[in-house]
């Protein structure tokens, strides 16, 4: 394994993280509604499970999903239903006033865990990236480094995202357009959940 492999891996992860998927949207939503600490806690939960998915990919869990398609379908269905639930809750709360620190950090962390834990496409993505970028037969130390690198990169990204989204100008703009932002976020999460539910 060389430095260029790690750089390529990090670029692929960064491209995936900045795409408007459920992880990105949940961090933004929690930061805007409950503050920087809640957003960072959500990101930490996402990062922990993302690193676990990379570990699973290194151990060959993607092979298990290939051999037992029903397992993939079960996890995917549960994940899709959870995203639809989050979308519904976000839509329902759009008209409610914002209460400071409305979501405790442990709830935000748990939500981050759930969003990534119930998305089996994460392990398939990680497996595809690992196969394309890294050489085969890597050592245990090299595998551990890849996992730690993934965890640290996600924590840094989501912490920076929460910091940016919690800036006064951004928060003020959110409060002024809360109804529309929350409803758009709910629709986006609902569409992602629906796509996960009916997609291959």
Automatic annotation (TrEMBL):
<feature type="transmembrane region" description="Helical">
    <location>
        <begin position="6"/>
        <end position="28"/>
    </location>
</feature>
<dbReference type="GO" id="GO:0005886">
    <property type="term" value="C:plasma membrane"/>
</dbReference>
<dbReference type="Pfam" id="PF01810">
    <property type="entry name" value="LysE"/>
</dbReference>
<feature type="transmembrane region" description="Helical">
    <location>
        <begin position="67"/>
        <end position="91"/>
    </location>
</feature>
<feature type="transmembrane region" description="Helical">
    <location>
        <begin position="112"/>
        <end position="134"/>
    </location>
</feature>
<feature type="transmembrane region" description="Helical">
    <location>
        <begin position="146"/>
        <end position="165"/>
    </location>
</feature>
<feature type="transmembrane region" description="Helical">
    <location>
        <begin position="40"/>
        <end position="61"/>
    </location>
</feature>
<keyword id="KW-1003">Cell membrane</keyword>
<keyword id="KW-1133">Transmembrane helix</keyword>
<dbReference type="InterPro" id="IPR001123">
    <property type="entry name" value="LeuE-type"/>
</dbReference>
<dbReference type="GO" id="GO:0015171">
    <property type="term" value="F:amino acid transmembrane transporter activity"/>
</dbReference>
<keyword id="KW-0812">Transmembrane</keyword>
<protein>
    <submittedName>
        <fullName>Threonine/homoserine/homoserine lactone efflux protein</fullName>
    </submittedName>
</protein>
<keyword id="KW-0472">Membrane</keyword>
